[in-house]
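Structure first, sequence second, as always.
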């Protein structure tokens, strides 16, 4: 009954799933009376997810792999989108990448090494994929407990404004928040104080309200948002709001819906960007891609590698769904 985004998280999956889903959506559209929207996540930058270990990608942060990213990944996506022009498409762009550029360049050598490819990669993909009037692109902005602090939001305005200008004349519709994360839409129990490390935006609603103002102040013209509600139905057991791996007590959140909040006309939709039931990362400490966050007390264990099916996690999400399924 409800769909989620299709993740093009490597070249093989892009080649297997992009045109197949576009073709299926077009057939459904032609057989009915309504347009059929397809949502994809573009997620294969060189040096991907530079501040984490569990979700590193297939391409390294070097010139050769950057050429592959452009010619074997982005160009192929552009060619397919050019073929299927009569149906709407949403692209969620490179989760975590630009948020890492805001907060982690100085502290994480891998992010410093990836900076050139993240920035140039966004400029390239915006020019290539932002040329199509039937495509709406949303750049990832992390979540409330990543960029919600005042200084992070101020810096984010500068970074995202620069990125969008670098991709001109390609168009960006807006921004995607809380992708694959657990931050509640609204948590009135939280306020700016010690429990939130003085974050003035301790839930997604306040975060998006603040980011709307900050992005407008930074000169960004098109400021609209989608919020991933696939996993934020309940306030879960996280010891710290920044914990992100297979969180116990989590539940499926609000159903996908366009224009879900009265008075927030810049919020385009709640949507299930992350397929619920996919692992965030392995809890096996001996694994190459083990990230310490996946071993924390509030992370469900034993957990498989990132992207693999995690049945126990899926069942808990169904049980805790809010509103109930």
């Amino acid at each position: 009954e409800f769909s989620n985004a299709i993740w093009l998280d490597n070249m093989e999956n892009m080649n297997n799933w992009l045109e197949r889903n576009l073709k299926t959506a077009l057939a459904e559209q032609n057989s009915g009376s309504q347009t059929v929207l397809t949502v994809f996540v573009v997620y294969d930058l060189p040096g991907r997810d530079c501040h984490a270990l569990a979700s590193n990608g297939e391409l390294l942060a070097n010139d050769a792999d950057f050429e592959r990213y452009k010619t074997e990944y982005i160009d192929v996506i552009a060619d397919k989108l050019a073929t299927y022009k009569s149906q709407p498409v949403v692209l969620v762009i490179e989760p975590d990448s630009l948020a890492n550029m805001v907060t982690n360049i100085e502290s994480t050598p891998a992010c410093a090494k990836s900076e050139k490819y993240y920035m140039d990669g966004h400029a390239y993909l915006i020019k290539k994929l932002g040329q199509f009037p039937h495509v709406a692109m949303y750049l990832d902005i992390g979540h409330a407990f990543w960029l919600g602090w005042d200084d992070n939001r101020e810096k984010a305005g500068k970074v995202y404004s620069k990125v969008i200008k670098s991709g001109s004349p390609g168009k960006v519709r807006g921004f995607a928040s809380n992708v694959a994360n657990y931050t509640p839409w609204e948590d009135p129990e939280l306020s700016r104080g010690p429990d939130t490390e003085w974050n003035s935006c301790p839930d997604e609603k306040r975060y998006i309200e603040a980011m709307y103002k900050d992005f407008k102040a930074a000169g960004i013209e098109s400021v609209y948002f989608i919020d991933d509600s696939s996993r934020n139905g309940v306030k879960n057991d996280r010891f710290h709001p920044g914990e992100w791996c297979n969180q116990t007590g989590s539940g499926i959140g609000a159903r996908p819906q366009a224009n879900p909040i009265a008075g927030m006309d810049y919020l385009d939709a709640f949507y299930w960007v992350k397929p619920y039931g996919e692992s965030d990362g392995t809890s096996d400490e001996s694994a190459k891609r083990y990230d310490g966050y996946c071993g924390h007390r509030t992370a469900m264990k034993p957990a498989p590698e990132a992207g693999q099916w995690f049945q126990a996690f899926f069942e808990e999400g169904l049980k805790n769904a809010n509103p109930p399924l």
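Margin note: The helical segments are 11-31, 63-83, 97-103, 109-129, 144-147, 150-166, 204-217, 311-319.
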